[in-house]
Amino acid sequence: MKTALATLVVALTAPLAVTAVPGVPDYVMSDITENCLEAVADDDQATESDEDCIAIAVEKYKKANP
């Protein structure tokens, strides 16, 4: 049930959450967003928000791909 709910949330919010970020291709942002939404949905402790996860992942991508 939890996995189905997480999949539904990702399916409904991923297209809305992907925004253009300078220096990050759209397909990368889409992957980052999807991965973060899934990770946060699976996190029972709610230690990180999806926005924090996305911001951290984007910074890591930019550092690895200058």
Please give a structural write-up.
The protein has one domain (2-64). Helix 2 (26-42) crosses helix 3. The chain is mostly helical. The termini are far apart. The chain is elongated, with a radius of gyration of 12 Å. 73% of the residues lie in helices and 0% in strands. The protein contains 3 helices and no strands. The mean pLDDT is 78.
Task: Supply database-style keywords.
3 helices; 0% strand; mainly alpha; 66 residues
Topology (elements, then pairings):
Elements: H1 2-17, H2 26-42, H3 50-64
Helix pairs in contact: 1-2, 2-3
The chain-level structural class is mainly alpha
Give the DSSP E fraction (strand runs of 2 or more residues): under 5%
Overall pLDDT confidence: 78
Overall body shape: elongated
**Termini, distance in Å?**
40 Å
Largest sheet: none
Number of domains: 1
Low-confidence stretches: none
What is the tally of helical segments? Answer: 3
Helix content: over 70%
